[in-house]
Protein backbone atom coordinates (compact mmCIF):
# COMPACT_ATOMS: atom_id res chain seq x y z
CA UNK A 1 0.00 0.00 0.00
CA UNK A 2 1.52 3.30 -1.08
CA UNK A 3 1.93 6.14 1.42
CA UNK A 4 0.50 9.55 0.56
CA UNK A 5 3.28 12.12 0.82
CA UNK A 6 2.24 15.74 1.35
CA UNK A 7 3.47 18.58 -0.83
CA UNK A 8 5.04 20.15 2.27
CA UNK A 9 7.29 17.12 2.73
CA UNK A 10 8.16 16.91 -0.96
CA UNK A 11 9.01 20.62 -1.13
CA UNK A 12 11.75 20.63 1.48
CA UNK A 13 15.53 20.58 1.65
CA UNK A 14 15.58 17.29 3.66
CA UNK A 15 13.62 15.67 0.82
CA UNK A 16 15.84 17.18 -1.88
CA UNK A 17 19.03 16.11 -0.12
CA UNK A 18 17.53 12.68 0.43
CA UNK A 19 16.95 12.40 -3.31
CA UNK A 20 20.55 13.40 -4.05
CA UNK A 21 21.80 10.67 -1.72
CA UNK A 22 19.35 8.12 -3.07
CA UNK A 23 20.35 8.80 -6.67
CA UNK A 24 24.04 8.33 -5.81
CA UNK A 25 23.30 4.94 -4.26
CA UNK A 26 21.16 3.98 -7.25
CA UNK A 27 24.16 4.62 -9.51
CA UNK A 28 26.52 2.63 -7.27
CA UNK A 29 24.09 -0.27 -6.77
CA UNK A 30 21.96 -0.47 -9.94
CA UNK A 31 20.64 -3.96 -9.15
CA UNK A 32 19.27 -3.13 -5.71
CA UNK A 33 15.59 -2.55 -5.02
CA UNK A 34 14.54 0.76 -3.47
CA UNK A 35 13.83 -0.78 -0.04
CA UNK A 36 17.31 -2.38 -0.09
CA UNK A 37 18.90 0.94 -0.95
CA UNK A 38 17.06 2.65 1.90
CA UNK A 39 18.24 -0.01 4.36
CA UNK A 40 21.81 0.38 3.14
CA UNK A 41 21.66 4.18 3.39
CA UNK A 42 20.36 3.99 6.95
CA UNK A 43 23.21 1.61 7.88
CA UNK A 44 26.01 3.55 6.19
CA UNK A 45 25.05 7.23 6.31
CA UNK A 46 25.24 8.76 9.78
CA UNK A 47 23.10 11.76 8.72
CA UNK A 48 20.38 9.71 7.03
CA UNK A 49 18.01 10.28 9.94
CA UNK A 50 18.03 14.03 9.25
CA UNK A 51 16.72 13.46 5.71
CA UNK A 52 13.20 12.62 4.55
CA UNK A 53 14.10 9.47 2.63
CA UNK A 54 10.50 8.32 2.34
CA UNK A 55 9.52 11.54 0.59
CA UNK A 56 12.68 11.42 -1.55
CA UNK A 57 11.55 8.07 -3.03
CA UNK A 58 8.36 9.76 -4.26
CA UNK A 59 10.31 12.78 -5.48
CA UNK A 60 12.61 10.50 -7.47
CA UNK A 61 9.62 9.34 -9.53
CA UNK A 62 8.90 12.85 -10.81
CA UNK A 63 12.39 14.37 -11.17
CA UNK A 64 14.14 13.69 -14.50
CA UNK A 65 16.47 10.67 -14.22
CA UNK A 66 19.31 12.60 -15.86
CA UNK A 67 18.91 15.85 -13.92
CA UNK A 68 22.15 17.52 -12.70
CA UNK A 69 23.25 16.17 -9.33
CA UNK A 70 25.31 19.12 -8.17
CA UNK A 71 24.93 22.84 -7.66
CA UNK A 72 21.87 25.00 -7.96
CA UNK A 73 20.61 23.13 -11.02
CA UNK A 74 19.78 20.08 -8.87
CA UNK A 75 17.54 22.05 -6.51
CA UNK A 76 15.97 23.87 -9.44
CA UNK A 77 15.06 20.54 -11.03
CA UNK A 78 13.48 19.36 -7.77
CA UNK A 79 11.48 22.57 -7.33
CA UNK A 80 10.21 22.51 -10.89
CA UNK A 81 9.14 18.87 -10.60
CA UNK A 82 7.13 19.47 -7.42
CA UNK A 83 5.49 22.62 -8.82
CA UNK A 84 4.41 20.87 -12.02
CA UNK A 85 3.28 17.61 -10.44
CA UNK A 86 1.69 18.85 -7.21
CA UNK A 87 0.65 22.40 -8.19
CA UNK A 88 0.74 23.81 -4.62
CA UNK A 89 -1.83 26.55 -4.07
CA UNK A 90 0.87 29.19 -3.59
CA UNK A 91 2.35 28.48 -7.04
CA UNK A 92 -0.37 30.65 -8.61
CA UNK A 93 1.27 33.70 -7.01
CA UNK A 94 4.38 33.13 -9.16
CA UNK A 95 2.69 35.19 -11.87
CA UNK A 96 2.93 38.29 -9.67
CA UNK A 97 6.73 38.60 -9.96
CA UNK A 98 9.61 37.00 -8.07
CA UNK A 99 10.00 39.29 -5.07
CA UNK A 100 6.27 39.72 -4.50
CA UNK A 101 5.75 35.96 -4.81
CA UNK A 102 8.52 35.02 -2.38
CA UNK A 103 7.12 37.39 0.25
CA UNK A 104 3.96 35.26 0.31
CA UNK A 105 5.91 32.12 1.29
CA UNK A 106 6.71 30.82 4.74
CA UNK A 107 10.39 30.96 5.83
CA UNK A 108 11.04 27.28 5.06
CA UNK A 109 9.80 27.62 1.48
CA UNK A 110 11.79 30.84 1.07
CA UNK A 111 14.90 28.91 2.14
CA UNK A 112 14.26 26.35 -0.60
CA UNK A 113 14.23 29.01 -3.31
CA UNK A 114 17.30 30.68 -1.86
CA UNK A 115 19.22 27.38 -1.70
CA UNK A 116 18.43 26.86 -5.38
CA UNK A 117 20.10 30.16 -6.28
CA UNK A 118 16.80 31.56 -7.46
CA UNK A 119 16.95 34.71 -5.34
CA UNK A 120 20.35 36.00 -6.50
CA UNK A 121 20.87 39.70 -7.30
CA UNK A 122 21.88 40.71 -9.86
CA UNK A 123 19.85 37.95 -11.46
CA UNK A 124 21.78 35.59 -13.81
CA UNK A 125 20.21 34.97 -17.21
CA UNK A 126 19.72 31.27 -16.44
CA UNK A 127 17.70 32.18 -13.35
CA UNK A 128 15.54 34.57 -15.38
CA UNK A 129 14.89 31.77 -17.87
CA UNK A 130 13.94 29.37 -15.06
CA UNK A 131 11.49 31.81 -13.46
CA UNK A 132 9.88 32.66 -16.81
CA UNK A 133 9.45 28.98 -17.71
CA UNK A 134 7.97 27.93 -14.37
CA UNK A 135 5.83 31.07 -14.05
CA UNK A 136 4.54 30.39 -17.55
CA UNK A 137 3.43 26.95 -16.44
CA UNK A 138 1.71 28.50 -13.40
CA UNK A 139 -0.17 30.81 -15.78
CA UNK A 140 -1.29 27.84 -17.88
CA UNK A 141 -2.56 26.08 -14.76
CA UNK A 142 -4.43 29.21 -13.66
CA UNK A 143 -5.93 29.70 -17.13
CA UNK A 144 -7.06 26.06 -17.16
CA UNK A 145 -8.71 26.47 -13.76
CA UNK A 146 -10.50 29.61 -14.95
CA UNK A 147 -11.73 27.81 -18.06
CA UNK A 148 -13.02 24.90 -15.97
CA UNK A 149 -14.75 27.29 -13.57
CA UNK A 150 -16.34 29.13 -16.51
CA UNK A 151 -17.57 25.89 -18.06
CA UNK A 152 -19.02 24.78 -14.74
CA UNK A 153 -20.89 28.10 -14.48
CA UNK A 154 -22.32 27.57 -17.97
CA UNK A 155 -23.51 24.10 -16.94
CA UNK A 156 -25.14 25.64 -13.86
CA UNK A 157 -26.98 28.08 -16.13
CA UNK A 158 -28.11 25.26 -18.43
CA UNK A 159 -29.50 23.39 -15.40
CA UNK A 160 -31.13 26.58 -14.10
CA UNK A 161 -32.77 27.27 -17.45
CA UNK A 162 -34.04 23.70 -17.82
CA UNK A 163 -35.79 24.04 -14.48
CA UNK A 164 -37.14 27.51 -15.35
CA UNK A 165 -38.46 26.42 -18.76
CA UNK A 166 -40.15 23.42 -17.20
CA UNK A 167 -41.72 25.64 -14.52
CA UNK A 168 -43.26 28.03 -17.10
CA UNK A 169 -44.42 25.23 -19.40
CA UNK A 170 -41.97 25.63 -22.28
CA UNK A 171 -41.11 22.22 -23.71
CA UNK A 172 -37.73 23.14 -25.16
CA UNK A 173 -34.12 22.44 -24.23
CA UNK A 174 -31.72 25.38 -23.73
CA UNK A 175 -28.84 25.41 -26.20
CA UNK A 176 -25.11 25.92 -25.53
CA UNK A 177 -23.68 28.03 -28.41
CA UNK A 178 -20.85 29.27 -26.20
CA UNK A 179 -19.31 25.79 -26.22
CA UNK A 180 -19.31 25.55 -30.02
CA UNK A 181 -18.49 29.15 -30.97
CA UNK A 182 -16.34 31.43 -28.80
CA UNK A 183 -17.46 34.42 -30.91
CA UNK A 184 -21.20 33.86 -30.58
CA UNK A 185 -21.42 36.80 -28.16
CA UNK A 186 -23.38 34.82 -25.56
CA UNK A 187 -23.14 31.41 -23.92
CA UNK A 188 -26.61 29.93 -23.51
CA UNK A 189 -29.73 30.28 -25.64
CA UNK A 190 -32.97 29.88 -23.71
CA UNK A 191 -36.56 31.02 -24.18
CA UNK A 192 -39.36 33.14 -22.73
CA UNK A 193 -43.06 33.52 -23.40
CA UNK A 194 -43.68 36.76 -25.31
CA UNK A 195 -46.75 38.58 -26.55
CA UNK A 196 -46.34 37.03 -29.98
CA UNK A 197 -45.20 33.60 -28.82
CA UNK A 198 -41.88 32.11 -27.90
CA UNK A 199 -38.96 34.55 -27.69
CA UNK A 200 -35.21 33.92 -27.50
CA UNK A 201 -33.39 34.63 -24.25
CA UNK A 202 -29.64 35.09 -24.82
CA UNK A 203 -27.56 34.58 -21.71
CA UNK A 204 -23.96 35.63 -21.13
CA UNK A 205 -22.58 33.54 -18.25
CA UNK A 206 -19.93 34.86 -15.89
CA UNK A 207 -18.34 33.33 -12.81
CA UNK A 208 -16.39 35.08 -10.10
CA UNK A 209 -14.55 34.29 -6.88
CA UNK A 210 -13.12 37.74 -6.17
CA UNK A 211 -14.26 40.11 -3.44
CA UNK A 212 -15.94 42.48 -3.84
CA UNK A 213 -17.81 40.57 -6.56
CA UNK A 214 -17.04 41.70 -10.09
CA UNK A 215 -16.57 40.22 -13.55
CA UNK A 216 -14.87 40.99 -16.86
CA UNK A 217 -16.98 41.93 -19.88
CA UNK A 218 -15.50 42.08 -23.40
CA UNK A 219 -16.40 44.59 -26.07
CA UNK A 220 -17.80 41.84 -28.31
CA UNK A 221 -20.08 40.61 -25.52
CA UNK A 222 -21.33 44.12 -24.78
CA UNK A 223 -21.94 44.94 -28.45
CA UNK A 224 -24.03 41.77 -28.77
CA UNK A 225 -25.91 42.66 -25.58
CA UNK A 226 -26.53 46.24 -26.72
CA UNK A 227 -27.84 45.12 -30.11
CA UNK A 228 -30.08 42.48 -28.57
CA UNK A 229 -31.55 44.64 -25.81
CA UNK A 230 -34.07 43.15 -23.37
CA UNK A 231 -33.68 39.62 -24.77
CA UNK A 232 -30.07 39.57 -23.53
CA UNK A 233 -29.31 38.94 -19.85
CA UNK A 234 -26.27 38.19 -17.72
CA UNK A 235 -25.95 35.25 -15.34
CA UNK A 236 -23.22 35.95 -12.80
CA UNK A 237 -22.36 33.03 -10.52
CA UNK A 238 -20.72 33.67 -7.17
CA UNK A 239 -18.47 30.60 -6.91
CA UNK A 240 -17.31 31.42 -3.37
CA UNK A 241 -20.41 29.81 -1.93
CA UNK A 242 -20.56 26.09 -1.15
CA UNK A 243 -23.61 26.16 -3.41
CA UNK A 244 -22.87 28.74 -6.14
CA UNK A 245 -25.24 31.72 -6.04
CA UNK A 246 -26.80 33.16 -9.21
CA UNK A 247 -27.14 36.92 -9.78
CA UNK A 248 -29.14 37.96 -12.84
CA UNK A 249 -28.48 41.32 -14.49
CA UNK A 250 -30.07 43.04 -17.49
CA UNK A 251 -28.45 45.15 -20.18
CA UNK A 252 -29.81 48.23 -18.41
CA UNK A 253 -28.12 47.14 -15.18
CA UNK A 254 -24.74 46.83 -16.89
CA UNK A 255 -24.90 49.91 -19.14
CA UNK A 256 -23.77 52.47 -16.51
CA UNK A 257 -20.46 50.60 -16.11
CA UNK A 258 -19.52 50.59 -19.82
CA UNK A 259 -16.72 53.04 -20.74
CA UNK A 260 -16.61 55.31 -23.78
CA UNK A 261 -14.04 55.33 -26.58
CA UNK A 262 -11.86 58.43 -26.59
CA UNK A 263 -9.89 59.81 -29.53
CA UNK A 264 -8.32 56.88 -31.37
CA UNK A 265 -8.50 54.65 -28.30
CA UNK A 266 -11.10 51.90 -27.99
CA UNK A 267 -11.85 49.87 -24.90
CA UNK A 268 -11.55 46.09 -25.24
CA UNK A 269 -12.76 44.85 -21.85
CA UNK A 270 -14.12 46.30 -18.64
CA UNK A 271 -14.40 45.21 -15.03
CA UNK A 272 -18.03 45.39 -13.95
CA UNK A 273 -18.85 45.51 -10.21
CA UNK A 274 -21.68 43.25 -9.13
CA UNK A 275 -23.76 45.60 -7.04
CA UNK A 276 -25.84 43.53 -4.63
CA UNK A 277 -29.32 44.90 -4.18
CA UNK A 278 -30.39 44.57 -0.54
CA UNK A 279 -33.85 43.16 -0.04
Compact summary:
This protein is α+β, with helices and mostly antiparallel strands and 279 residues long. It has helices spanning 7-10, 13-28, 34-44, 53-60, 71-86, 98-103, 107-115, 125-167, 177-180, 219-228, 251-254; strands at residues 188-194, 197-208, 214-218, 232-238, 245-250, 269-273. A hairpin with a 6-residue loop joins strand 4 (232-238) and strand 5 (245-250).
Write the layout of secondary structure elements.
Elements: H1 7-10, H2 13-28, H3 34-44, H4 53-60, H5 71-86, H6 98-103, H7 107-115, H8 125-167, H9 177-180, E1 188-194, E2 197-208, E3 214-218, H10 219-228, E4 232-238, E5 245-250, H11 251-254, E6 269-273
Helix pairs in contact: 2-3, 2-4, 5-8
Q: Could you explain how this protein is built, in words?
A:
The chain has 279 residues and is of the alpha+beta class. It contains 11 helices and 6 strands. It has helices at 7-10, 13-28, 34-44, 53-60, 71-86, 98-103, 107-115, 125-167, 177-180, 219-228, 251-254; strands spanning 188-194, 197-208, 214-218, 232-238, 245-250, 269-273. The strands form 2 sheets. The chain has a 4-stranded mixed beta sheet with strand order 1-2-4-5. Helix 2 packs across helix 3, helix 2 (13-28) crosses helix 4 and helix 5 packs parallel to helix 8. The chain is elongated, with a radius of gyration of 27 Å.
N-to-C CA distance: 55 Å
Number of strands: 6
> What sort of overall outline do the alpha carbons produce when their principal axes are compared?
elongated
Element-level helix/strand string = HHHHHHHHHEEEHEEHE
Label this structure with key terms:
11 helices; alpha+beta; 47% helix
